[in-house]
Every structure is written in structure tokens, then in C-alpha cells.
Design brief:
Elements lengths: L1 H7 L28 H9 L7 H4 L6 H6 L8 H37 L5 H32 L2 H10 L18
Helix pairs in contact: 2-5, 5-6
Length: 180
């Protein structure tokens, strides 16, 4: 199959490898090799990092952005308080989980730098990181669910417009399946 693709591309049969730096070049100096400084900061501050896009882009607004648009959305005092609470709960738990993820990634990195090549314990370490990442994503998605239950359909439609998720012609979404 590869030969066919090479022939179709018009390449010669003897392909010389091109020496180019790896896209990872320079990253060997990172404190935790698998995480950039920005990723570490995001984990430690509870940022969303796109973890709730399934909710956000399907008309389940996030509490942080709802609070940013509170005046435009005409939140009532009760709604504002409820959204602030949803955000505070989400952020506290996200920070806690983010700290654990960073700690586990640092431990994983240390294993490799120390030459620990025990495959089974490596698998256990990866499962632990995966479980924490899943829980972190749930925390963010759950905050979107909670926020959606606080808002009216019109507020959600306006939020979508403010965030650029519509063509600006109004709410064309079916929010009737959602409960308030």
C-alpha cells in the first residue's frame, strides 16, 4: 500500500530521509515533559481547556462566560448567585483535580528520567491519570449542566449569539427538550 502511494505521488523508489528537528525539540527542558507551562498553569487554576466543548457548543453555557455576560443576559440576582455558586464549586474541584493531574504527570516524568521501565506499574500510573482527567472533564461538563438549568431558553439563545455560535438571526435551536 505504501509503495502504491509513493508511486502515485511520483516519488522515486529510493527516498532519502530528510534530517529535520523533531517538533519536540526544545521541550526536553520542560519541568514536566508531557505538559507545557501553559497546560500546567491551566490545570492549577481550574481553567476549562476545552474540556466542556460538547456542552458549550450544544447550548449548555459555561458559568464563567455567563458571569462575563451577566448584564447582557439580564441575569436576575438569584440567577447570578446560582451561577456564581456553580462556578465556585466547579473551580474549586477543578483546581483540586488539576493539582493531582500535575502531580501524577510529574511522577510519570520522574519514572522515565530515573529509568523505571516496569510496564505494569506504568499502566497503573496511566490509568490513574486517565481517571483524574475523566473526573476533571466531568466537573466542567457538570457545571455547564447546572448553568443551563438556571437560565431561560431566551438567555441561552442570547448567550449563543454573544459567543458567536449563531449567524446572528436569532435562536434557531430547539431548547424545548431542556427542563428548567
Amino acid at each position: 500500500m505504501v509503495a502504491l502511494l509513493v508511486a502515485q505521488a511520483g516519488c522515486a523508489s529510493s527516498v532519502e530521509p530528510v534530517s529535520a528537528p523533531s517538533p519536540y525539540a526544545g521541550e526536553q527542558a520542560r519541568t514536566i515533559k508531557a505538559l507545557s507551562a501553559d497546560e500546567i498553569t491551566s490545570y492549577l487554576s481550574g481553567e476549562g481547556m476545552g474540556l466542556a466543548m460538547a456542552a458549550e457548543l450544544n447550548h449548555y453555557p459555561g458559568p464563567k462566560h455567563v458571569l462575563e455576560f451577566a448584564d447582557d443576559l439580564h441575569l436576575t440576582d438569584t440567577q447570578r448567585t446560582q451561577v456564581q455558586q456553580a462556578f465556585a464549586e466547579m473551580n474549586a474541584e477543578a483546581v483540586r483535580l488539576g493539582e493531582q493531574i500535575v502531580e501524577h504527570e510529574a511522577a510519570l516524568d520522574a519514572r522515565f528520567s530515573e529509568g523505571d521501565d516496569d510496564a505494569e506499574s506504568m499502566r497503573d500510573a496511566l490509568r490513574a491519570i486517565g481517571a483524574l482527567q475523566a473526573e476533571l472533564r466531568f466537573v466542567h461538563l457538570h457545571a455547564h449542566l447546572a448553568t443551563r438549568s438556571i437560565l431561560t431558553d431566551n438567555q441561552v439563545a442570547h448567550y449563543d449569539q454573544l459567543r458567536g455560535y449563531t449567524d446572528g438571526e436569532g435562536a434557531e435551536h430547539d431548547h424545548s427538550r431542556m427542563q428548567h
